[in-house]
Amino acid sequence: MTDRQVVVGVAVVDAGRVLAALRPGPDGGWEFPGGKVEPGETDRDAAVRELDEELGLRVTVGASLGLDQPIGDKYVLRVYLAELMSGTPVLREHTETRWVSVARLSELDWLPADRPFVPLLRATLRGGG
Ligand SMILES: Nc1nc2c([nH]c(=O)n2[C@H]2C[C@H](O)[C@@H](COP(=O)(O)OP(=O)(O)OP(=O)(O)O)O2)c(=O)[nH]1
């Protein structure tokens, strides 16, 4: 597992809702926006950079949800909670974004690697949101 590159996904939370983003294309689906952690970057650096590049959002990154989910044999997906500081989503790479209540998260057609994070997110946010 250690030689796999980390893909950070960011669960941006605002007013008790979570931002989901629709990746286009044949392998598309709903995902947590983010991307690959580049050499020399921390996961949190990558999360902040990707959210700015992809959606024009400023976020403060918090805890990991605590799971490394394999994507194929080269990557693992690691999802972090984040708080929205400023911005409204600008669609640069995604075709749609949605603010989804915790109760409705499981209704979206998430990418396969993202699915295990949905119950973790619900359990984490249920108390606080
Ligand atoms: N960002 C993100 N990628 C995900 C998620 N779930 C999932 O399977 N993936 C996959 C899709 C891509 O194959 C890969 C991440 O690639 P990416 O295109 O977001 O990475 P990147 O922005 O660094 O792009 P690039 O420079 O390599 O083109 O992980 C997710 O929730 N968020």
From TrEMBL:
Start and end residues of each Nudix hydrolase domain: 3-125
SUPFAM superfamilies: Nudix
The protein's enzyme class: hydrolase
EC number: 3.6.1.55
Cofactor(s) named in the record: Mg(2+)
GO terms for biological process, alphabetical: DNA repair; DNA replication
Sequence similarity: Belongs to the Nudix hydrolase family.
Name this polypeptide is given: 8-oxo-dGTP diphosphatase
